[in-house]
Amino acid sequence: MDIIPLPFQVKPSPGEFRLTAETVILTDLPNRWNADYLQSLLAAPTGLPLPVRLSDQSGTNFIRLHLDSGLESLGPEGYRLTVSPQSVTLAAPAAAGVFYAIQSLRQLLPVEVEERLPVSGVDWHIGCLEITDRPRFAWRGFMLDEGRHFQGRETVLQTLDLMALQKLNVFHWHLTEDQGWRIEIRKYPRLTQVGSHRLGTRKGFTNGKHDGVPHGGFYTQAEIREIVAYAAERHITIVPEIEMPGHAVAALAAYPELSCTGGPFQVATHFGIFPDIFCAGKEAVFSFLEDVLDEVLELFPSPYIHIGGDEAPKKRWKDCPDCQRRIREVGLKDAHALQVYFTNRIAAYLDSKGRHAIGWNEILEEGLARGAVVQFWARGRKKLVKAIRSDARPTVMSYCFYTYLDYAYKLIPLRRIYRYEPVPNGLNAQAAASILGVESPLWTEWVPTRARLDYQAYPRLTALAETGWTPKDRKDLRDFHRRLPEFLSRLDRLGVHHATLEEAEPLRILK
Questions:
Q1: Is 320:245 a contact under the CB 8 Å cutoff?
Q2: pLDDT more than 70, % of the chain
Q3: Distance CA 457, CA 469 (A)
Q4: Pick from 109, 133, 157: which residue ends a domain?
Q5: pTM for the complete prediction?
Q6: Residue 208 pLDDT level (bands cut at 50, 70, 90)
Q7: Exposure letters 49-85 (e unless 16+ CB within 10 A, then b)
Q8: CA angle, residues 241, 386, 390, in degrees to nearest 5
Q9: Is 9 helix (H, G, I), strand (E, B) or coil?
Q10: Is 267 helix (H, G, I), strand (E, B) or coil?
Q11: Residues 169, 235: contact at Cβ < 8 Å?
Q12: Which residues form the domain of 231?
């Protein structure tokens, strides 16, 4: 039994279930989507009809999708998968659990199930067992940065499908950066007319000329609605990130009056930290950002909206008369306190719309709004633990030296990300409940293609998926290595250009 992520509990039993021409799919779910999804998943490679019927109809060889309120103790994403010689039952208290049961069933079948055309000579059987399963964390995420390199619709849809296979449920979509603005905002068309294209890309962080190859692209609102709906069917929440106040050069190139200096600016061709950020002293900036967020909120039903907040130099604010006037009028200590004011104002606006702000851990300063969520990536760990203990600060863990997928495998090999423990030492059970979950970001400065994205992400994202789902005391690196080759074979059939296990563990001799 080689399921990834490893289930909470597995009880094997004698016998096996076989898919045959008589097999039917029965469902009592109010929405047929899960049943139709399973039918399409299995019918293509097996060549079997597998008709979908209501569960009150009879059958002697069937797969049943069943909502069972008696399993509520497993939570909204938990499930029970029971395989007997006559039937397979996928039971859960909610549709999300049924969907995750389908992903486990998928991995119990031969790897040829991933093919989209009929495969001959395959024995389509499943060994009898009972799986009782639930996730460890509610937030199991992957972040894709498209500000640095635009990947496009097909890559995002494939990403969502792969996330679903691994029971990941949060797609953090980094859509704005110094190097590109990737989301259509109808009230401000220059954000995409100007901000979505750069003249080229430098190979180094700050030195040298760019390559002279224009790079650009953005998502229309129609495309975003399609992608959000596609994710929702797979029980994935898309959390959009609109960077503020820093990493905003692409926006300032389009609307330079939103800066402290008035520009002019051009969309950045190199990578790093830029001094020009949104001006915190101008009311027009907050009007602009609220307008942008209004359109973002219409597109994304996520309860969380990411507002970045990282790497925002204060040089321009210190020299800006508007920012200094704001500091005096509000009674702030300095420019660092001004960023807390900025963050709290945006967080309050989102709260008024029934949403919550989330930002990188640079937003965690004295006076930060209580409801703002922190995503920890580096530095300030003691400050974070203090905030969790004293304020029950909701937190997503993404410590860069354990979770970042853009780093080389020599720096973050597979075993390092697998062994990452998201809950800091010293937290009691009540404080630990503030840890919403875990996420692996993929920043794309050096990831221009889908093939490179695949290589950087897999199989490390698979290890992160097990960290997010499987109980801590059930995890075992050796067993994960044993299960991984079959999972990589599935990725091969899905067209994923992953690293090999030897590449993913460069400092370890694999036997």
A1: no
A2: 98
A3: 18
A4: 133
A5: 0.97
A6: confident
A7: ebebeebeeebebbbbbbbbeebeebbebbbbbbbee
A8: 95
A9: strand
A10: coil
A11: yes
A12: 139-504
